[in-house]
Every structure is written in structure tokens, then in C-alpha cells.
Design goal:
seven-stranded antiparallel sheet; Alpha-D-Glucose-1,6-Bisphosphate, Chain A, domain 4; 7 strands; alpha+beta
Length: 129
Amino acid sequence: MAVFQESIHIDRSPAEVWEVIGDVGNINVWLPFITEAEMDGDYRNCQAGSNGGLRERILSVDDTTMRTEYTILEAPMPIEFIHAGIQVSQDNGGSCVVWDTTVTPDELVEMFVPIYQEGLANLKSQLEA
């Protein structure tokens, strides 16, 4: 089981960043890997372009702590277990976004890290434009 995280500073208030992150049904707006997303109750169905579909369960969306957590139930890659969370917090006049994940098998870290880095960089670019 591998544990990793990616983070980024964004020059916008936590409330502004949370407005985007907390809208879990629109993850495709800022995460380029996801081309379509649709909510079905607590479940998020995503299309990852030609890579296939993902079915995720949203475990929590907490407006007070500005944290969301989810697990991937179905994916085109061999995931045995995954639990991820995205947290927004105050950081030097702006915000810090931390995306933390626990995943099995460990080899999937190499796949997820660039997806997370690209997503967080895109989020920063959109919000700071």
C-alpha cells in the first residue's frame, strides 16, 4: 500500500478554491484527465477520454473543513484499493490544495502523480487567470 500526496499554492482565497473543488460533479472542469463527469447520488461516473470510464464513490464533501474524500470502485487500471482526499486550506494570503492518496498496488503511484500534478497546475492556472 502506497501513500502519497501532491500539493500546490494558489493565489486565491480558500473559499474561491473550495467553490471549484467542492463541486465534485464538475471535476472535469479542472482535471484534464477527466473529459466528462456525472453524479448519480453519491457516485461519480467519469470518462477519461480514450482511457475508459471510472466509477467513484464520493465519501464526503465537508464545507466546514473544505475537504472531499472519494474511492474508485471501477477503473480501466488494476486498482485493488484507493482512498483519496482533496483539502483546501489557508496559505500565505492564498490557498494550499493538498491531494492525498492511499493506493494498492504501489505501482499505480507512477500513473497517478503526473495526473494529479497536471490537474493541480490546471486548477491554479484557471483560478489565477
